[in-house]
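Appendix B, Record 12. Input sequence as logged:
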Amino acid sequence: MTNRLLNAENLRAAYRTPDGKQVFAVDDISVYINEGEVLGVAGESGSGKSTLGAILSLTTRPPLYVESGTLEIDGKRQELGERSKIPRTWRGSVVSLLPQGAMNSISPTQRVRDLVFDVMRAHDRSIKRDEALDRARDRLKSLDLPVRVLDSYPHQLSGGMKQRTVTIISTLLNPRLLIADEPTSALDVSSQKALIDMLLQMLEQKIMSGVVFITHDLPVLRTVSDRIAIMYAGKIVEVGDAEEITERPRHPYAAALLSAVLVPEPRYREMRVFGIPGSPPNLLNPPSGCRFHPRCGVSYPECETEAPPHVGDELRFSKCFWAKKHPGESVPLKAVTSDRLEEADPIGHDPRPAESEQHDDMDGPAPAGRAEGREVSTGGVSA
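Logged structural output:
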């Protein structure tokens, strides 16, 4: 039987503006992870991914305030809220954060060994310098990385090596859960692969027991994740196995997002591009009912006024009236995407019929790595 690692329930957090208004970037979200699992989190910019990562890693700072929720990691439970006092021992040993731009977090005037000691001493005042460095050396050796990086300054390391070094430093206390917030965003494809391989190796060695992997890079997400959660406007709209959700998404937004994958290759230059019509809502005043309904081509009248139903169980679900009324059917992709992008396309209109027009509306979305009417490579692509 698989043990549950993370139970995060009813999380709500808001950014407070100077005039007293609240922007709920995470609004009543629940997340579950089993031991040894990687949960990928995807969504448009502003959907609340990084805010969710800050809540789970217990690193929220003003103007972001956690309103409510419960966090249980490896059987240890913590109530969240403005007046909650988080035990210092939780940060770093129970849950740790690998933040955005992690490779720029190393001081240019410090050797890596000095950063290692500073981080370890911040969590354990009794630790000796030699002990901290010995632990770092052992970790580097176990992951087949050169020990010499400890004596290096940041400018002497490549971008990929800096990212892997910061990842190792973030996990020196063997956290039960690692929150990786867009760790591959500034890396080339080979460095991305090296980092992903290292994270999976760390899971195998039980350096940590689970990972929440937040990224815009959908092909990378499918490679590294066991399950994927799709976020939209502060809500999780769909969760499922990585292969299932990329090939057979049940929520219209998830289907449209996962089909919007582009590749900068010459043969795609004149092919028609499909995108999601409209733009994400203003979270100061989000739409009633389903927050995606103003942009959705398969919405029903109840989508405008009622909260969408939870279709499925806690590990595989979509929150959608369409999914409830069409069990087992694929989302009609042409109904939830748009090709009216000629004004933004410097190439102009392609007079040839798009391949997507030759398919029936109900064919559903193509797998990740293949958008409607065009094959797409799965290497180094961001959506």
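Residues 32 and 314 are 7 Å apart (CA to CA).
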